[in-house]
């Protein structure tokens, strides 16, 4: 026998637990529960519950698994008046979600009772078109894209690693990209530094990078730092950034960057290349070790020659720079598992990746608990020299 709308609604109410707006607010404050707004995008843009995930009821079957992979996790659906959310909750239950509730009265009653709500930043029509593929991903969506637009990433170096990173950070819509480099474009750079061009040989790398970034995405604010990173200026250069992508090619600069970033709590996505090989990790204590944990002392020059001496396959820094960008975007969006505490090794000849687990050095003069306490007290611990002095120690590998 065919069912009427009233029959379907009655059936949904008999199957789905309903919570009032005050009850839902208590649940929200306790955390651990995902609130899913099943209204249309135009309704969401007028305001929504803080921290809610937006998935239109029309796409609930397609997108919920990406936003909520754990089918036993608690979830509360809501709409404008409490009806669409009932049917959405019923759909989730049919998909195997075991702890689903619907908020009665919906967002209208939530607002009328004076409960907290927020208005999202609205993307322009051009931004919606530009970032449309991001907006379809539940882990990104409008909220994530807005986060990227408000984020600041700093590139140390506009070379082989910094080139692909700059391009894909700009393409992703990272709102501010800082570029630190004091060099000029050389013809030998163009084999791997794809952000530059032949007609820019002799031009400052920072300015060349800015031109390419803004040609790709004119909305990106490019901040140029045409200077070498040193102990004296590192604090000023990294101030205010959310993530740093390390494309440096000297151990001295890496130590300087590491020590300053650890002191202010900015994660560093580090990559390096050698001929057909690349390495990638994230330094973000206490989630994992810092650079000094991995390399307590710098190696002798003959063990770590630069590209100008050893050479590098042009595509390798491209691959590693893209992987750096992926890690940076994950950090900015707070999604996925970062490479903090892990070292990813790439071999282009074998087309293989190897992962090593890294551990913190409990006696590290920069990121250990003792070092942090000493820094807070105004008496930072002494650190080893950043230049090779005859002894090389490798640490941090499990």
User: What gap, in angstroms, lies between the N and C termini?
Assistant: 66 Å
Q: Tally the helices: what do you get? A: 17
Helical content (DSSP H or I, runs of 4+): 25-40%
Large-scale geometry: elongated
Q: What structural class results from the helix and strand content?
A: alpha/beta
Strand elements, count:
13
Superfamily (CATH H level) name of the largest domain: NAD(P)-binding Rossmann-like Domain
* Poorly predicted ranges: 390-398
Rg result: 25 Å
Number of separate domains: 2
Give the strand content: 15-25%
CATH topology of the largest domain, which one? Rossmann fold
Sketch the major β-sheet: 8 strands, mixed
CATH level-1 class of the largest domain:
Alpha Beta
- How confident is the prediction overall: mean pLDDT? 92
Strand neighbour order, sheet with most strands: 8-7-6-9-10-11-12-13
Strand-and-helix sequence, N→C?
HEHEHEHEHEHHHHEHEHEHEHEEHHHEEH
Mind telling me which CATH architecture of the largest domain this is? 3-Layer(aba) Sandwich
Structure report:
The protein contains 17 helices and 13 strands. α11 links the parallel β7 and β8. The chain has two domains: 109 residues, Rhodanese-like domain (Oxidized Rhodanese, domain 1, 3-Layer(aba) Sandwich), CATH 3.40.250.10; 227 residues, Rossmann fold, CATH 3.40.50.720. The C terminus is likely disordered. The longest helix has 19 residues. Helices cover 37% and strands 16% of the residues. It is elongated, with a radius of gyration of 25 Å. α1 packs across α5 and α10 runs parallel beside α16. It has 398 residues and is of the alpha/beta class. The chain has an eight-stranded mixed beta sheet with strand order 8-7-6-9-10-11-12-13, sandwiched between helices.
